[in-house]
């Protein structure tokens, strides 16, 4: 639970129903321990780095973690996201109506909980309306602006998971809608939000318009999911096949003295006469590319993503709210950066696409 600048974290090694006030750790938003229990045998919860993502990215007032059987089972029925609609209880979730889709992202489990941090962070970014993240075969992380609302969210989601499982058990049909792609998450940008909000926000339509792998194939965007390590056998095979002979690395973060100017340059719509190839070593960000209908498709790239944008396609790079990415840039020839900005009069609504960082 968060109280001002202080976050109270439960310890490991104590049954949760037996935790006393003196057992709690006090930390700040950067995980620095401000106060620890007198009992030196107690350690801070292994879930702490995951809780921090909800505090940082959603300004949560409290975060809960559950090993709910219903949450675990629901991850076996859905591929990338839990979804339901028309249940009255959906109204118990902030900014939701029962006639709108309720979606919760599902991420894959890891042997150690701390290794979930990156994928949970990315799920929070790409599902701005969800107040929780499901972990396949594991459980559920859920939050709210206060501890009371976090508790309500936990109960509402639990009810919805159980209801959908019951419907499935009795073979009662439930509506389904398109889910995010299991390999890479991409969606159509809401132009109204683009004109009003910080460009680092996801800028999704309220009912997210996911873009499939097939649609990305049709505009020539290539993707591979690797492990994010510099030494990677599959990466070297791809480089040989596609004649990528040169490479360098680029870190983009708030530590750079020219950070804001760099972002504005990247976020200007442009094209290249050559392919643009990026391999994400850590962090995350967006590549926006134009669809066949001249809409923005936003592709969220995360650690391990290798993406190739074809020559001649209008695109831009945008930082996400984490404000950090470390990429390897690959080139067929000597490293070069020649961008041709899109003429202002080429698109009838050009002013709507001006990139703004707040």
Structure description:
The chain has 358 residues and is of the alpha+beta class. The chain has 2 domains: 46-169, L-fuculose-1-phosphate Aldolase (3-Layer(aba) Sandwich); 185-353, Jelly Rolls. The protein has helices spanning 48-58, 69-74, 117-126, 147-169, 191-196, 213-218, 233-241, 259-266; strands at 2-3, 6-9, 11-12, 25-27, 33-35, 43-44, 62-66, 81-84, 102-107, 132-135, 139-144, 185-188, 222-225, 246-253, 270-271, 276-290, 296-302, 305-309, 315-319, 324-331, 340-341. Strands 12, 13, 14, 16, 17, 18, 19 and 20 form an 8-stranded antiparallel β-sheet that branches. It has a 5-stranded mixed β-sheet with strand order 7-11-10-9-8, with helices on both faces. A hairpin with a 5-residue loop joins β4 (25-27) and β5. α1 runs parallel beside α3. The radius of gyration is 22 Å and the shape is globular. The two termini are 29 Å apart. Mean pLDDT is 94; it is low at 348-355.
SSE diagram, text form:
Blueprint: E1 2-3, E2 6-9, E3 11-12, E4 25-27, E5 33-35, E6 43-44, H1 48-58, E7 62-66, H2 69-74, E8 81-84, E9 102-107, H3 117-126, E10 132-135, E11 139-144, H4 147-169, E12 185-188, H5 191-196, H6 213-218, E13 222-225, H7 233-241, E14 246-253, H8 259-266, E15 270-271, E16 276-290, E17 296-302, E18 305-309, E19 315-319, E20 324-331, E21 340-341
Parallel strand pairs: 9-10
Antiparallel strand pairs: 1-2, 2-4, 3-6, 4-5, 7-11, 8-9, 10-11, 12-17, 13-18, 14-20, 15-21, 16-17, 16-18, 16-19, 16-20
Helix pairs in contact: 1-3
